[in-house]
Amino acid sequence: xxxxxxxxxxxxxxxTLAALVLWSSQAHAVRIKDIASxxxxxxxxxxGYGLVVGLDGTGDGKKANFTIQSMVSxxxxxxxxxxxxxxxxxxxxxxxxxxxxPPFAKVGSQIDALVSSIGDAQNLQGGTLLLTxxxxxxxxxxxxxxxxxxxxxxxxxxxxxxxxxNFPTVGRLIGGVSVEREIEADFNSRTSLTLSxxxxxxxxxxxxxDAINALFYDQIASAGDSGTVHVQVPTAYIGNxxxxxxxxxxxxxxxxxxxxxxxxxxxxxxxxGENVRISTIAIAHGNLSIVVKENFEVSQPPxxxxxxxxxTPDTRLSIKEGExxxxxxxxxxxxxxxxxxxxxxxxxxxxxxxxxQAIKAAGALQAExxxx
Length: 372
Hints:
Layout: H1 2-25, E1 30-31, H2 32-35, E2 36-38, E3 44-53, H3 65-77, E4 92-101, E5 110-117, E6 128-135, E7 141-148, E8 154-157, E9 162-165, E10 170-179, E11 192-197, H4 202-216, E12 221-223, E13 228-232, H5 241-248, E14 252-253, E15 260-264, E16 269-272, E17 277-278, E18 281-284, E19 288-299, E20 310-321, E21 326-329, H6 335-345, H7 349-361, E22 365-366, E23 368-371
């Protein structure tokens, strides 16, 4: 009886250990939805030229001839004949309207657009965009934009001062774009799919392929290269590819990445990946600070003495050199040990940049060093 109890206890310990190992291996797993996209399922860019009216004297000036021409052409289409010399465009601004047409967008869907001034307008606040057709790269109209422009900023000025927040010459048309033409895409009729990884990596592509095959107990997925995974639609999902993708995109995999250290010298930012390793190396880093203080001693003569004021400069120079500690880092040191060692040196982010560049020059940094 005792042996049986010990065996059960041992079996429970093994199951618990296996569960902990499985949980730890999947602790950093992410969904396929978050690291890959379906080839061919993407948004399409739309662009159009329009006019924003109703501005409070902050529109284009006389130098923007294209704004005047646009006003004349628009009024002429409405049956109003005017002379270009009689038009003042202080309340009108010429703009470019850009929008992204989402995949599978249907006729009547409402989307947002970005409105940007192309003339010398000072502010689009309070303006209204007139009906503007938005075209794709093929020249066809896919949407119409019209409505109030939201700038999210303001600008005001007086004779001797001015205040400005954000960029009032750029605004957003919230829900003011109506889709008028659909992009033909029969998604459910597909017999194969291609997943494109956002960060191409051979290991990640292989893991995605293995996860899909394990879910369907069949070899329906294969990695084409480091950035694509081909999926053959199973017979049970022919005509119902949406359900197939709903199951695939929920799968979790552990993405791999190259060891990389990214440095931004302008901001002093240093980002190190998890797989960064260094070879055996000793690091010493010290700071040298030089302080120069300038004082002026002024000697003035007594009143009515006809003497001269004498100014004598007094320069004081002090030099302080920080203690440079020598730290030994063994080969294969992990990123956590590197951080702890560099923190022990008391280095700043600016010092980290110089240290990592020196380690890379010494050939001890087993990672890619990228300076942005």
